[in-house]
Amino acid sequence: MRSFNDSAGRTWQLEVLVGTIKRVRALAGVDLLGVLEGAMLDKLASDAVLLVDVLYACCKEQADGLGITDEQFGRSMTGDALEAGSLALLEALADFFPSRQRLLLRQALAQAATMADRLLAQTAASLEALPTALPPSTAGS
Fold it and tell me: What domain count does the chain have?
């Protein structure tokens, strides 16, 4: 079982079971089993609203027990909480699959993390290379 903290300081337990997959399909319209195809990973990575909907569906039983609505849950999923929730979801998904598929998924996740780190480093280097002073304005010339 995986866990993550939201920005309100609550800890959410996340375990992907068949019932979780069914609930996510029903509530968020997402088939978590599609993670092996790769397109779903891209979709979740590029759509924070969809990611939060999926996380809420995964954690719905806990949220109901705490009296937390999907809107309240969504308000607490900002910044680092999004990254923590995403990582917990992906790790819980990997735990769900049999060993050979789990290994492939973990390798894909590690490769995606490496690529994301490289992209962030390249972006930071590009930003540092920008001139610090703005050119003189030509407005009014």
Answer: 1
